[in-house]
Amino acid sequence: MTPLLSLSRLIDTISTWVGKFTMWLILATTLISAGNALVRKFFNNSSNGLLEIQWYLFAAVFMLGAGYGLLKNSHVRIDFISTKLSDRTRNWVDVGGIVLVLFPFCLISISLGWPFFMQALQSGEMSQNAGGLIRWPAYALIPLGFALLMLQGVSELIKRLAFLTGNGPDVLSSEDAKSDDQKKLEELEAQTAKMLAGDK
Asked: Model-level pTM greater than 0.85?
């Protein structure tokens, strides 16, 4: 199990790096959007290219950030059901979801998205809008994003199986599943409560 856990840590590192990269894309999207709005307002001019860059960057954030979201356990769950299950049952449900839903969905999306990307790349497909951009970078995000999501799914599967075989912690436990931000917020709330109690 040790080599698989090492692989899982490597995948987690890749997903973390990609996730942090997408955070910068959000800033770029915001700046381009604001710049485009200012140019349109004050100079009565607009660029379809800049507008399409915004769309491409938004798509990149969504597609490339999906694996990071899975790593941080921030994908939508039916919490009111899963919290009533035992730790082992929750992990088995995740194993089933990863193998029976996530992997097939990612494979189908990759296999359907790849031809669009290749066709656009080979034909040099351009946007139909005047001053628009080439299309293949946007199409490339489909197979790439789902490949990264599937890769993180492999890591999550390894972690679930490690817990179920007694070789790893339960990443779904309430304490382990908390994000760093949630933990920091709880620490701040505790410190604030102590300070307020000390003032009385």
From this structure: no
